[in-house]
Design a protein that fits this description.
210 residues; alpha/beta; Rossmann fold; six-stranded parallel beta sheet; 8 helices; 6 strands; globular
């Protein structure tokens, strides 16, 4: 396996954590998961986005930085592969959608200082699902504070993610996750594994699930 640091990304409800768990199990890899439940501002943000956007994004950035920094300093002799369910740049992408211009400029300055100290993944797996599917998944997992997320917010995040990936020509396995069932359908997971183990160059490579 030539990729030692794999990141799974996608919109809210795209299935990132499920796929991350399955890949970590398949490769006996170290796993890094977003600790969103620890963010004391998250439920308040969904109730009052204008008031809580800055602290919610700042808290996420600090926690993600801490997690990824520890990963760099604690090389695991027995697990040469790491799989994460978030990209550190996610901080900036969400902040771009949630923060007003002046706050975003301040946030970006902090982000620019911090992200230089972290390792970028070797490859990104991006799960792209239509808004209707995302909302179905959000309802299904039934986190109370997520139940009123608007289609418009999900659409803005989707646009921000895809334009960032294309603009920076990141090495990306772009999965159409419209009908994704990684837990129930082994063929879906196999598509991702085959893509990871194939010859992927820089840029976006698009895959559909059977």
């Amino acid at each position: 396996m030539k990729h030692h640091f794999i990141t799974v990304e996608g919109n809210i409800g795209a299935g990132k954590t499920t796929l991350t768990h399955l890949l970590a199990k398949h490769y006996n890899a170290r796993i890094i998961l977003e600790e969103f439940a620890d963010n004391p501002f998250l439920s308040k943000f969904y109730e009052n986005p204008q008031q809580y956007a800055f602290p919610v994004e700042l808290f996420f950035m600090a926690e993600r930085y801490k997690q990824l920094k520890e990963m760099i300093h604690t090389k695991d002799l027995f697990q040469s592969i790491t799989v994460s369910d978030y990209l550190f740049t996610k901080c900036l992408l969400f902040a771009k959608v949630t923060l007003p211009d002046e706050e975003f400029r301040l946030y970006q300055k902090l982000f620019d200082i911090i992200h230089q100290q972290l390792t970028f993944p070797d490859i990104l797996i991006y799960l792209h699902a239509p808004i209707k599917k995302l909302q179905e998944n959000i309802k299904k997992r039934n986190r109370e504070y997520e139940q009123n997320i608007s289609n418009e917010y999900l659409f803005d995040l989707q646009e921000t993610y895809t334009s960032y990936i294309k603009q920076h020509n990141i090495k990306t396995i772009f999965i159409d996750a419209s009908n994704a069932d990684f837990l129930g359908n082994p063929k879906h997971l196999q598509v991702v594994i085959d893509a990871l183990e194939g010859d992927i160059e820089n840029g976006q490579h698009y895959f559909t699930l059977p």
